[in-house]
Every structure is written in structure tokens, then in C-alpha cells.
Design goal:
Blueprint lengths: L6 H7 L8 H35 L5 H22 L6
Keywords: Membrane, Transmembrane, Transmembrane helix
Length: 89
């Protein structure tokens, strides 16, 4: 005589095809956090580069300076929107 496993226990122990594991559920938020940290680090690097440009090349043409500052402003706005998606709505 073989004992049968109740259906509710068997359902819990058998893996479902297409269902995410606990590791996969943690991977999404972890990768988002890692991406945000890397983005913040690169933003800091860009600020240092713009400051270095400002100090090193004070006699550059206006179009070059405007391009550098426009890139900084656009990147700052993009970073702010990524950290707070409610800014876009």
C-alpha cells in the first residue's frame, strides 16, 4: 500500500514552469539598486569633469562651453527623473 501525498502539499513541492524563484525575485530590485548607484557615481564623475573643464579652459569659445553645460544639465535632469519617476507626471 502506497501513501498518496495530499494535493495541496504536492502542489507546493513541485516547481511550476515559468514561476520565478526567490533568487529571481531578488535579482530585479538588486540590479535596479546597483544601476542607480552606478548612475550616481558616473554623475559625480561628470560633475568633476565639468569643474575641471571650467578651471582649465576658461578661454574656450562660447559654443563649446554651452555644449558642456547643456550636457551637464540634461544628464542632471535625466538622473533626477530616474530617481524620482513622479517628476515626469
Amino acid at each position: 500500500m502506497t501513501a498518496s501525498i495530499p494535493s495541496d502539499i504536492a502542489e507546493l513541492t513541485t516547481p511550476r514552469v515559468g514561476s520565478p524563484s526567490s533568487l529571481e525575485l531578488l535579482r530585479g530590485p538588486f540590479l535596479q539598486l546597483l544601476g542607480m548607484l552606478m548612475n550616481s557615481g558616473l554623475m559625480g564623475s561628470l560633475i568633476v569633469q565639468v569643474y575641471y573643464y571650467y578651471c582649465t579652459f576658461p578661454n574656450d569659445r562660447g559654443i563649446a562651453k554651452a555644449t558642456v553645460y547643456a550636457v551637464l544639465c540634461l544628464e542632471f535632469f535625466r538622473t533626477a527623473c530616474r530617481k524620482n519617476p513622479k517628476m515626469l507626471t
